[in-house]
Write a structure and sequence with these properties.
Radius of gyration: 25 Å
Strand content: under 5%
Largest sheet: 2 strands, antiparallel
Distance between the termini: 25 Å
Protein name: DUF998 domain-containing protein
Number of helices: 9
Order of helices and strands: HHHHHHHHHEE
Shape: globular
Number of domains: 2
Keywords: Membrane, Transmembrane, Transmembrane helix
Pfam families: DUF998
Low-confidence stretches: 1-12, 231-285
Mean pLDDT: 79
């Protein structure tokens, strides 16, 4: 039957709206990670005990850290664009926090940390607080998105990524405090900071945040497909001779009128049965 033939072919054109954003996001994030890896290879810095910020002062690879972080910031904005293009419900808080994450990364790249080899206290303070804002904003944005994902299978992956980021942030915060206490001359913490290297915990935090970013990008892709599936189903139903008002009055999923996004299960309208709503508005000839 034509109706079921069209239904079987449904979804082949899904993902077009987010595709440019996804390509930019993956390209920028991938390039940022690649640049960081190359910098670690060519620099004489110790990745275990030296923070990423210290790579602004290095014997080889000058400027590569800023390029890497800026690339990650661009990719993060593209993730925000993908979520918007997919029609994912986002509050102002979610949008603001994702923007702050990107702006924090950009500010950290433009204003490097201050070190004895290249002292700049003002730039160092801006860098410190920009990093703090960035690392707090991304998981906050993901948390604020959870309510919109209630009942969706993608929510579990976002929760897992948030937990991973939170654990990594906690480890980094502890190691940061230990280093500061060690620098202040508190003797017991010198050995503790050596056993709890800040370089490792900071890199774990960055990787956890990248995983969270990619998880949000995956959410945008999957939800766009879900939304497109509902729209295409409405078009298929009309082509098959069903009334034009099928989406508004006649499609009932599990006994309830299906909206553009069934948050409790995200089921495609019609998969679990189509019934005529006796209370729906009558179709005009």
């Amino acid at each position: 039957m034509p109706f079921f033939e069209n239904l079987n072919g449904m979804g082949t054109e899904q993902g077009k709206r987010t595709r440019p954003w996804r390509l930019v996001a993956l390209g920028a994030i991938g390039w940022g990670l690649f640049t960081a890896v190359v910098l670690h290879i060519i620099s004489s810095r110790n990745p275990v005990y030296d923070t990423l910020s210290s790579y602004t002062v290095t014997d080889r690879g000058d400027g590569m850290l800023a390029a890497s972080v800026l690339s990650l910031a661009i990719g993060s904005l593209a993730v925000l664009g993908a979520l918007h293009a997919a029609g994912v419900p986002m509050s102002r808080t979610t949008r603001l926090l994702l923007a702050l994450w990107s702006l924090g990364l950009a500010a950290a790249a433009v204003f490097p940390a201050s070190y004895p080899e290249a002292p700049d206290p003002v730039s160092g303070e801006i860098h410190l607080y920009a990093c703090l804002v960035a690392f707090l904003s991304l998981p906050g944005a993901a948390i604020s998105l959870l309510e919109s994902l209630r009942g969706r299978p993608e929510r579990a992956a976002v929760v897992t990524a948030i937990r991973l980021s939170a654990v990594a942030f906690g480890l980094f915060a502890i190691s940061f405090v230990f280093v500061r206490l060690s620098e202040a001359g508190v003797e017991p913490f010198r050995e503790i900071s050596d056993a709890f290297p800040i370089g490792v915990t900071q890199r774990l935090l960055l990787l956890a945040d990248v995983v969270l970013l990619l998880t949000l990008l995956r959410v945008a892709t999957r939800l766009e497909s879900a939304f497109d599936g509902r729209r295409e189903f409405g078009g298929v139903a009309v082509q098959a001779g069903h009334p034009a008002g099928v989406q508004e009055h006649h499609v009932v999923v599990r006994g309830e009128v299906a909206g553009p996004f069934d948050q409790r299960g995200g089921h495609l309208a019609g998969v679990h049965g189509i019934e005529h709503d006796a209370l729906g508005a009558a179709e005009k000839p």
